[in-house]
Design goal:
The chain is mainly beta and 222 residues long. A hairpin with a 2-residue loop joins strand 3 and strand 4. The protein is elongated.
Length: 222
């Protein structure tokens, strides 16, 4: 009986060793992960209608440069937020990625452009795009000053895009069509614009919660 047990264990060990060899066939014992960094800033602005010169990225494995790919849907003819993604992989298929946000903005002498938005009581928010509609009003990417989307980090679902009317001569900003985002509808009241059109303030209120705060927009593009 002992003899048979020894033979069985020996066969089992041989089978186990065979499976281990097969499972690691053509797979490196050690892999060096790729590294990828973008050149320049992660957030850039580019004027509508102008070519965008992508600063690109640097990719390497173990200190040696490798090629990378670029993907994205950048449209330089239309104002908006666009993402360019860079990717590189090593010989074992492990990938590194990085991304850049490009805001295409208008420079038409109106209030259209990119603004630094903040919730005044907290002092932070995020980039806001205001663009012309062609009817005298403007699209705004977020009535809440980017506070929830960027400042708190909830993402694009918590932006509150809307349509606003801006009367620089009269010094007022009003809502032409209320915004809506992850917390429901949002309204604008007490809107004021500076005489040069480069700064705006208003109270943004989440209608369903009867909660709001003061927002400040400061233009960062020409």
């Amino acid at each position: 009986m002992k003899k048979y047990s020894i033979i069985f264990l020996a066969l089992l060990g041989a089978l186990t060793f065979s499976c281990d060899v097969e499972s690691t066939d053509d797979v490196s014992q050690i892999t060096v992960y790729p590294e990828l960094t973008i050149n320049g800033d992660a957030l850039v602005y580019s004027e509508v209608g102008q070519p965008f010169n992508d600063p690109g990225a640097n990719a390497s494995v173990g200190g040696s440069a490798i090629e990378y790919s670029t993907s994205g849907d950048l449209d330089t003819t239309t104002p908006g937020f666009y993402t360019i993604t860079y990717a590189a992989a090593n010989s074992d298929g492990f990938e590194a990625t990085a991304s850049r946000t490009v805001i295409i903005y208008e420079n038409d002498g109106s209030v259209a452009g990119v603004y630094d938005g903040i919730r005044i009581s907290r002092g932070f928010g995020g980039p806001i795009l205001i663009s012309s509609r062609g009817d005298g009003d403007f699209n705004i990417s977020d009535l809440m000053g980017g506070y929830y989307e960027f400042g708190v980090g909830y993402g694009n679902a918590y932006a509150f895009p809307a349509i606003i009317s801006v009367d620089v001569a009269g010094g007022t900003v009003t809502s032409a069509a209320g915004g809506a985002g992850g917390f429901g509808p949002c309204s604008l009241t007490n809107g004021v614009v500076s005489s040069d059109g480069k700064e705006m303030t208003w109270t943004a209120t989440l209608t369903d919660y009867a909660f709001g705060f003061d927002v400040k927009m400061t233009k960062v593009t020409p």
